[in-house]
């Protein structure tokens, strides 16, 4: 689409059926269709953080994190709406004074005319969500949720499990995972027999060590997730050694595991808006918001 000025006020002619510009309210309805907030975990806080429902939305930027650099990018591009996977205000706050990072973020977004919407665990559980995108990228078939959503459809829930079309060695599959994810300092960590054959794969974007019981119940050969902590991972490996050594573990970047979702999410939202007669420009952030800058490993100085 052609570039346009960063305008918020429009006329009635802007919203003709042929060239309608959506309001923030229109975009929120489309987002709810794709990622219902009813699918969010009880502890989560997705939804609209800042913005007026009647303001026009011409440009939408998708990102994993609402960091300073991401907000800079959104404002420099002239975005009317920033959609992030991670919430800015997950825990209750008593102030949004600009003296804090989060308060400053809220001020900069409002002053720049950019709304903020977060799609977190509802984006994980929904069909086409974070783990669905991972399962598709890894080439899995017969995919089902690891843990079904209590209030959702059978295909909605946290994590996914499915089967590779043919068995691969753990080393070859780990190489596939590494090649698909964005480059980050921490790389990819693997636990298990490099030559061991795997076929059944469990995945969970973001931190997923709370799903170990479901992974074992599904008899997965390998589990791909992020933020694996020492003690849960160690205990899982000890239990695995009493059987056939499964499941193996592949620990990836939290940011990387969720970054893959941004493109499909932007495409899905664009399709819904188009079907409803609206036109908006959507873009995926170019910012790598993984917090780590470099890593030292044996043999590397």
UniProtKB/TrEMBL annotation:
Residues 1-17 have a biased composition (Basic and acidic residues). GO terms for cellular component: cytoplasm. The keyword 4Fe-4S does not apply. Residues 1-20 are annotated as: Disordered. Homohexamer. Belongs to the GTP cyclohydrolase I type 2/NIF3 family. This is GTP cyclohydrolase 1 type 2 homolog. The lineage of its organism: Bacteria, Bacillati, Actinomycetota, Actinomycetes, Micrococcales.
